[in-house]
Amino acid sequence: MAKRNPELTARNRIINQLTEEMNTLLPAVLKKTGFTNVHSLHGKIGGKFDEYIDIQNDVITSSEHFISLWLQGYKQTLLDRHITAEGGSMIYETYSLLQTHKVFKEYLMLFLRRTYLRNYEALSKKRPSIEDAEIYIGQNNANYGILITPRFVNGFWENDKSEIRHFKKPYWSIGHIMETGFVIPGKNDKITFRDIPEYLNFFVNVIVRNSGSTYEMQLGELYRDYVLNHARPENIPLLIPEFRYEGIDVAHKYRLDFTIIEPNDLNKIGFELSPWSTHGQLTGTKGMTQKAINEKAQANFEKEMAKHKNYFKKHGIFSMIYTDEDLKDIPAIFEDMKKYLEPKTSSQQLQLHILDDFFTVDVTKK
Predict the structure, then answer these.
(1) Over the range 297-326, which residues count as b (16 or more CB within 10 Å of their CB) and which as e?
(2) Closest CA to 243 of 143, 130, 171, 343
């Protein structure tokens, strides 16, 4: 049986309470305003809230925040359109009724609070920019795309931008990949998974294995075991292998070994495994002067550092770099990763269930 979500339970309880309060006020509101029924009333105050609020970009963290934005947007609409009483506008008529009847104003506040809570998941979470809403991973000729609301149009994959905010799973999580699967660049085809173990098998034995790195394989296996043994596996962020710096372009410069994108805040953390044998060792130095060897070593170093600087400048990805001494203890590296893998609630999000929990504690017990 799925574990009860205390936050959702608390939210539904408040929604039901608000509905009861609205129903108590409704007869008086209809009588005062002249609206014929509740559907007509709600059509005037709630049918166009997306015209007053930039719901595509605003991250709305509370019902009070939502109400404030709605009132500002409503007022600005009146000013921008120069709407007055003489114009016969329904927007102005509704505004006038709100000014005149206190009960209607009280009803509106309850209605807006309920609207926010009913749409809380879509309105409160931070959404990626259009540019960041699709990523590509993998080696050349074995690359895959992860989009949020993928659709195939004119030979290319793209996101349905209008639906990104409605995506119910945490962005870039195990639940995300179970919902969308991988898209195949340039083909109207996907790789989808029946269950989480099937995805994790593909992750380890196809994508990570293809890198040829024993270090990456060990980390991939640790991640697989971590997800399989977790109480909430769908909420765990993806461990993204071979993140492609230039996206789908074949002539890309760089790939990060692993990347984690935290679903709530969308922070990106890169993990780069840099053994000396592949990232620093110099070859072909026979016959070279010490000066020439130093110049070659410096060029290698500059190239490696440019990779990480470019990742940070373009994608905001801070990279943790592990060298030979670190790579002697792969479980310790995975412990670093786990700090970003544990599902957590954003500090900005509501935690309504805390109020319930607070008053159910028996303070007489020691």
Answers:
(1) eeeeeeeeeebbeebeeebebebbebeeeb
(2) 143
Q: Which residues pair with 270 in a beta bridge?
A: 259, 319
CA angle 30, 33, 38 (to 5 degrees): 35
The rounded distance, in Å, linking the Cα atoms of 176 and 124 is: 18
Integer Rg of the chain from CA: 27
Pair of tokens at residue 56: 């595509």
Which residues 6+ apart lie within 8 Å of 358 measured at CB? none
Chain centroid to Cα 210, Å, comes to 28
Helices (H), ranges, 53-151:
63-80, 90-100, 102-118, 120-124
CB 141 within 8 A of CB 132: no
CB 172 within 8 A of CB 240: yes
- Report the C-alpha gap between 14 and 16 in whole angstroms: 5
pLDDT on residue 56: 73
SS3 330: helix
Tokens of 59: 């991250």
Which residues have a Cβ under 8 Å from the Cβ of 293 and sit 6 or more positions away?
A: 282, 285
Two tokens, residue 278 = 């592949």
Closest CA to 30 of 113, 115, 109, 103: 103
In the chain (366 residues long), the average pLDDT of successive 10-residue segments reads 68 93 95 92 80 81 89 83 57 85 93 92 82 82 88 94 86 96 94 97 93 92 96 93 71 74 86 65 60 62 62 70 89 94 60 50 46
**Model confidence pTM above 0.85:** no
Q: What share of the chain is helix, strand, coil (3-state, %, to 5)?
A: 55, 15, 35
| Pair of tokens at residue 3 | 């574990």
